[in-house]
Queue: 3 jobs
Job 1
Amino acid sequence: MPAVVQTVLWALAPTWLMDRCARRPGEPFTLTFAPSGMKLVLVSDPEAVKTVFTAPPEIAPSAANNSPIAPALGPSSVIVLTGPEHMRQRKLLLPPFHGERMREYAEVIVEATRKDMAQWPLGRPMKLQERTRAITLEVILRAVFGVEAERMGPLKQAISGLMRPTNSLAMLRFALRRPSGERPTGAIGDALDRLDAVIYQEIGRRRAQGDLAERTDILSLLLGARDEDGVEMTDGELRDELVTLLLAGHETTATSVAWAIERLVRHPHTLQRLLSELDAGDGDEYMTAVVNETLRVRPVVPIVVRLLQQELQVGEHVLPPGTRVVPSIYLTNRNPRVYDNPHEFRPERFLGAAPETFSWIPFGGGIRRCIGASFAQLEMKLMLQTMLGELEPTLPPQSRRWRRGEWSRRRAVTLVPVAGARVSWNRRGPGRSDG
Ligand code: HEM
């Protein structure tokens, strides 16, 4: 295919293009983009994925500093940094995402979901993705800022402004036009200015307060964190990590929950089995399988990119320095050598069998694996449990066009359901365990 055609298909129909290339010429394959001439080498064989994810960071660092979202995240963002600076920020950020802490977020997740559900129109179609996005934004703000999040209306507006679809397009255009690292101007620049003003103000207020030890929100934990040399984070570093968590931590999870319901309404037996498990109140094995299967078959981030600094042997191929080698999350999660009928939504495949590290990679891998993976999985489960405990989703008759499933559409760096996960909700009948 001419590079121009590959570029247009990559922008408009990335999953179609990946499926097509996986069939012929087959894995691994190279995509070439015009006019830059940039090439991506896509891999999806678990052994190749393992080689890339476990290669030392000085050989295969992340190429996310070239991502269209990098300028908004800032130069100290853990997503943007590489090498020892990346490890420093990552170690500072990890504690709030560990085991015990997770439980504290559970109440916030259930409460935010219930509050939003109270306004849903029953029996009429709605775009679920808009609501899940509002819920996860509320949750991440509460997790990051604690109760102060309640008076952060302007912050919410600034973030929503940043994430508006037109702005995502503007962001992509910005990334194509200029070298990365420059701060966006125009509507995105204005939204970023508003976001920064609120964040710096809050950092200043907290530093002055001196009650950090009693607080458990992420900002307080980060303000108290010290690296191996006992050095604390600067205001600029804090700003970049907070913006990173706010942006990386809500759209992704919201889309995954929307995809879960999009799949469930088209698989009534699966939905009924899930509702039965919820009603029985006896564990969450099937729910876990549903979440794992959704993340497998509809991964919201389709690829991750590593930029080789040295030669690397991947399978039979020796890739030269300068190669952008790309574990394709989308293709790896559907590798027919690993999964039977890989396009089918069948949570049963994960009953009694946990996903494998290098053939189920919705959260990427190696030392760059998503910091919020456990948080996101907990949030998905609790949001689904709360919704399905009270309401039952159906496919609205108007959605016949999407009877077999909504296509994926790009939104900034994620893949979202093209119609916004259209669904109707009805109240569930009596006989449920929670009354
Ligand atoms: C279903 C939801 C989510 C998905 C599918 C997802 C996916 C990803 C992926 C694919 C990466 C890149 C990994 C790599 O390069 O190997 C990543 C990185 C990251 N994610 Fe997530 N993510 C989700 C939710 C979250 C949440 C809730 C947070 C935080 C609250 C978060 C914070 C981050 C951070 C900080 C990184 C950068 C890690 C690093 O570079 O060291 N993500 N995520």
Job 2
Amino acid sequence: MLDYHLHLWPHHEHDTPLRLEQLAEYCARAEAAGVTELALTEHLFRFRQADALLGGFWDDERVPPALAESMAGYWKFHATADLDAYVACAQEAKEAGLPVVIGLEVDYYEDRMDTVAGLLAGYPFDVLLGSVHWVGGWRFDDLDDPVSMAEWSVRDVDACWDSYTRALEELAATRSCDVLAHPDLMKVAGHVPDAPAEWWDRMAEAAASSGMAAELSSAGWRKPAGEQYPALGLLERFVACGVPLTTASDAHHLDHVAHRADDLRAVLASVGVGVLQGYRGRDPHPVVVSRSAGAGTGTVA
Ligand SMILES: [Zn+2]
Ligand SMILES: [Zn+2]
């Protein structure tokens, strides 16, 4: 079992020092839940290097002024850490024998993914998550931002899903990342089309044709969506298309590390998946879904 989506800092914190002890605590908690390997995947936009390259992407006439202002403030708050120090800390954890790999959660930046790839090529990443957290400068998943959430009352849900899916397709086509994180994140605030199948089909096709894996995440259970990412219908499509899977908590602090790992195991079992995909140096390898830590190790009586 994997926890291939972990953050070091909650969104409301910045300038929090990196600590090897924190990573050791993450590993101990994961191990207790039967999770054997962790990927550290902080948001790219938390780093000054990203701000220098990508900051201001919201200055686009298609982005409404209120959303552009909100995004500018969000970036200013978040983009304070040093990517070199983050990678060095993850490397140190790896060298100390902790079961971690070095990753990053990368957003989709329209027409700028070559720039992103150029920056990231300079680091020894094991795995890169590809995420769509905003479309057209709108942070549809930022439940704490009233300006962003107000958009849900004026936008058409099907149109939102269409924009999201198009961004996800474009991200996948760039082949700049390895794993599609929380693939149906557009449901985060609880808004789902009456007939989501057409979007699920497109998401599964985007993953399959790009060679990306997809993430099965417990984070959706902690949100208004109230279910894992992806929904069962989308997960079944990924499996049918041969898209490999990772498992993840998307924890932003220790308490959520390996969150509901047993429930993720049950979801995997329900779709007949017994092998996940791990990464080293961005090369995939199979990882057998281990038994629950509480399930014992040997013969069933
Ligand atoms: Zn995310
Ligand atoms: Zn995340």
Job 3
Amino acid sequence: MTNEQWEAILHNDVSYDGSFYYAVKTTGIFCRPSCKSRPPKRENITTFNTADEALAAHFRPCKRCRPTGARLPDEEWISIVTQYIDRNYMNDLSLSHLANISHGSPYHLHRTFRRTTGVTPVEYIQEKRIELAKQLLISSRLPIAEIGKQVGLRNTPYFITLFKKLTGVTPAHYRQAKSECSKEVYHDEQS
Ligand SMILES: [Zn+2]
């Protein structure tokens, strides 16, 4: 990317629309230079001469500036968000952050996400975190607090409460039950 292109992106310069498109590696979205979304970090940007080239490189058109001229279907918009959550659920994720990276409004994202997936963004993040916590409880000897930290739930009492709410048992009980279960299997194989 040239300095001139970077300036055009920073200033949402309409006169550059059509001359190039820019894609953001961390979100998988591409835009027109004039897009009003918050400017990304320069090192995360790739530029393309045409929208087709950006599509061919598997970037999705921005919902806000519509670089292909067509409206982005809701399912595709939401899949940008779910894929971002899948890669980043161990970090702090707020609705406004997700709206930012997916170039939509928090309110619209919340509604569309629920209509498309059946759960809210927050519920989706929580399910993701508890799924990973289950795997870590079985496959590692890490303390409960450390597992909470690794899945993005640094507040241990909250982690335990949420885990119990979604699975019916505490993390400690879950681990214990699973380890007894595998011991039984081991016994059966021995006898
Ligand atoms: Zn855009």
